[in-house]
Amino acid sequence: xxxxxxxxxxxxxxxxxxxxxxxxxxxxxxxxxxxxxxxxxxxxxxxxxxxxxxxxxxxxxxxxxxxxxxxxxxxxxxxxxxxxxxxxxxxxxxxxxxxxxxxxxxxxxxxxxxxxxxxxxxxxxxxxxxxxxxxxxxxxxxxxxxxxxxxxxxxxxxxxxxxxxxxxxxxxxxxxxxxxxxxxxxxxxxxxxxxxxxxxxxxxxxxxxxxxxxxxxxxxxxxxxxxxxxxxxxxxxxxxxxxxxxxxxxxxxxxxxxxxxxxxxxxxxxxxxxxxxxxxxxxxxxxxxxxxxxxxxxxxxxxxxxxxxxxxxxxxxxxxxxxxxxxxxxxxxxxxxxxxxxxxxxxxxxx
Length: 351
Hints:
The chain is an alpha+beta fold. Helix content is about 35%, strand content about 25%.
C-alpha cells in the first residue's frame, strides 16, 4: 500500500507527519511523531509517552526520540543508511517553519518532493472493516439523537443540549466526538457552523443539530433540524425544500459520476425555488479518520466518485434573521448506487 508512493512520487524515501496518515499507514494511534519509509525500512519515531503503545499497534521499527537522540538525528541516520537524496514530505499538513527546520537539519537531502494529497488518496476507498466501524459510529449517533428528543424543551440552552447529546453518544460507546457538536436554535440556525451558546430554546425555534461519534478513530456525521412547538408555514416551506434537495442529491449519488454533478442536482432545486443565495457550502464531503476528507460533492469537484467512498449529502438553506435548515446523511458508494448509513426520520419533527 504505502510502498506505491515511493514509485508514484519518484523518491528514495518519504516522511509521514499527518496524524491521520500515520494512523492509516502504521496503525499507531498516538498521533505524535513521524514515519520514515524507504524501500528497505519503515521506522516510527516517537517519544517515551507513546513508545509502548506504538510497539503494540504497529509493525514499524519504533525508535524513541529524546534529548540525547533527537528526531532529526534519527531521521539523518535513516537517510544516511539508505543514501536517500530525494525525500518526500507532506506539504499539505506541514507548517512552513517546520519544513524550514527540517530542511536545515537534513542537508544531505538534495531534493525535497511535496507529496500533495498522495497519502490522503490511499484512504479514499474504505475497507470492509472501516465500513463496519463507521456504521457503528452512525448507529451510536442516531441512538443518541433519539434519546435527546425526550430531553429537549423550551428554556434549555444550546450548550445544555449539546452536552446531553455528547454524553449520550459517549454513553453508547463513542470513544470521542468526530468534531465539535453544532446546536443552533432560532435565528442562530442561519449560521451553518454556529457554536452552541447560552441562548435558550423558545417555542417556534428551529434547532439544527450537526454531530458525530468517533469509534476506533473513525467518524460519523449527521444533521437533523427540528422545530420546537408548531412550525410556521415559512419554516415548513424551507424545510420541505431542503428535504427535496437532499433526496434528489441522494438519488444522484453513485459510482462513476463527478462530485460536481451530484452537487448540481441539489443546488439547482434550491436555486429554482428562489433560495440559491442561501446555500453557500458544498453538498457533501468524504468521511473517514478525519471528518472532512476528499473527494467532495461540490461545484468545483472534478474527481470521479468511486465504489468504497463514504460521502455526506447535506444541503441547507440559511436565511439570516430567520433561521436555517440542514439535513445530512452519510452514505457508502456501491457498485450500483449507494447504501445509506442513516435511518433517522427526515420528515419535519415538531416537538
